[in-house]
């Protein structure tokens, strides 16, 4: 319920139907479990090597996405340190993320 409330508060319901949003608590699978990523692959018919995942939790988002072969952008908002950064890209601000995404769209990354 907490995640659905967050989705509502962000106004995402205006852009996505409920079945187009995966909430791990409803599925009984939590990140970084590979199952949640495989569920997304199946539900949305995505190709792992062409998929990009943006996350702010290194251990849940980046590690999980990397395990299944997805590209990842680590939105590093905390002072979290990692021994070896396996994220495809790393940004530390919304502005930096914005420009990275614009470049990716313009140059086909």
Shape, principal axes of CA atoms: globular
Number of strands: 3
Q: Helical stretch count?
A: 5
CATH architecture of the domain at 48-107: 3-Layer(aba) Sandwich
Strand content: 5-15%
Order of strands across the biggest sheet?
1-2-3
Helix coverage percent of residues?
Answer: 40-55%
Distance between the ends: 35 Å
Q: Describe the main β-sheet briefly.
A: 3 strands, parallel
Radius of gyration: 14 Å
Q: CATH homologous superfamily of the domain at 48-107?
A: HAD superfamily/HAD-like
> How much is the average pLDDT?
93
| Quaternary form | single chain
* Low-pLDDT residue spans: none
* CATH level-3 fold name of the domain at 48-107: Rossmann fold
The arrangement of helices and strands along the chain is: HHHEHEEH
CATH class of the domain at 48-107: Alpha Beta
Provide the structure class.
alpha/beta
Explained architecture:
The protein has helices at 2-9, 24-27, 34-44, 58-67, 94-107, and strands at 52-55, 71-75, 89-91. It has 109 residues and is an alpha/beta fold. The protein has a domain at 48-107: HAD superfamily/HAD-like (Rossmann fold, 3-Layer(aba) Sandwich). The chain has a three-stranded parallel β-sheet, sandwiched between helices. Helix 4 links the parallel strand 1 and strand 2. The protein is globular. It starts with a helix and ends with a helix. The model has no long low-confidence stretch (mean pLDDT 93).
Short description:
This protein is α/β, with parallel strands linked by helices. The chain contains five helices and three strands.
